[in-house]
Amino acid sequence: MTNTDVWRLSATETVAHTTAGDLTAENTVAAALDRMDAVNPDLNAVVDFCTQDAQARALALDKARSSGAPTGPLHGVPVTIKINVDQTGYASSNGVVALKDLIAPADAPIVARLQEAGAVIIGRTNTPEFSFRADTDNPLHGRTHNPWGRHVSPGGSSGGAGSAVMAGIGALAHGNDIGGSLRFPAAANGAVTVKPGLGRVAAWNPSQTAERGLLAQSMSVQGLLARTAQDLHLSMPIIVQPDARDPFHAPLPWRGPALDGPIKVGFTKNTYEFDLHPEVSRALDIARDALVDAGYQIEEIDPPHLRDCGMDGYRALMGEVLAMMGESVRQHGSPTINAIFDEYFDQFTPYKDTELLNMMAKRSFYAREWSVFQQEYPLVLCPFLPQPFFAPDRDTQGPEGVREVLGSALWSYSMNFMGLPAACIPTHVAELPQGPQPMNVQIVARRWREDLAVDAAIAIEARAGRICDALWQRMA
Question: Where is the Amidase domain (predicted)?
Fold first, then answer.
């Protein structure tokens, strides 16, 4: 195989070849590094390079295999890590100039699990300042671009991860999600992801000097972006393994028990006060028809308390951010991020004091209502965003910009507030006046049943195909 053939392989395909001995880890890493050299200068998706460490690790993996050592489930798979998570010897800058020299003393749990499984980290991907935008730009590393073109944002906060994996820089990309930061880049770039539920993936940064707020702990999760849904069944069982440094991790197997009969899927196109774009409606129709053909039972539903849950959850999060991060953002953030936060606080009036405590308590009400609802509907097929993905810097353009970027994302942050798993999967490429871009849908799963969401994503992908192939043809 040529290097081009190799970097195009999915993680599942890569492992099949490295396990069989058709490819070495040195082969797969060299191809990924060559691809990074070719396309990253235009994208700025990877901003911290692990080239020498990656080459040395690939050689070590090959040497171990040749000596008879067993191979891991991700043997030789090139991956990237987001710059807000600790990787030994690298800066966890989080896109903030003041943190550019915050060198990690040890690996975060997800970094350790990936490497133990045989993955090779080839680079670290860009994020906005403080990882708190749905777009990716910062004064430290600059703007990340979407491989589909400059007309569409790469999303955020894992925008570098989404851009990299879809451009062919590694088969898997680490990211995280507190209000949509895995799913925004998946939607923007055409990747597939599943936002894990609360407690599923152990999380902790050895470089941190204080604990995060309670809502940050309960809403933020670690995860992966891939080019094909099957790769999530390969990789997610690895990162859900326990780590004693996260005392609230839920040590559950990746696969839950089989459900009786055809799985009921609640289906909705409800976008509340926001207009539903015809291409988003088409994406939902494609996904629904694919699930019907795959044997799922589809019923139209009225989701319980979705809008109130989303707004209460984000306003509560803004209250915690204002109280615990406000001073740091003012002191160390750029004028751009401060202006965006001011707009956030205007549109999502932060809950404070007793009101904030009451909303933290009400989180259980929303989660309970959905828990009961999902006894009948283990999966919900819904929009992620009501409109095609927005242009770069849309959130810097006043109230209307922030309303389009975050205000309309009710289906996103509501899932974080309740701690429910949610997958995003592309269905087609829309030829829009501003340029082509992928369209996607969201699949919400019952608590701790990420595997069900991935099964449904695989069924949709079987009908829709891999979006990366159309992207690479365009990039060529």
Answer: 28-451
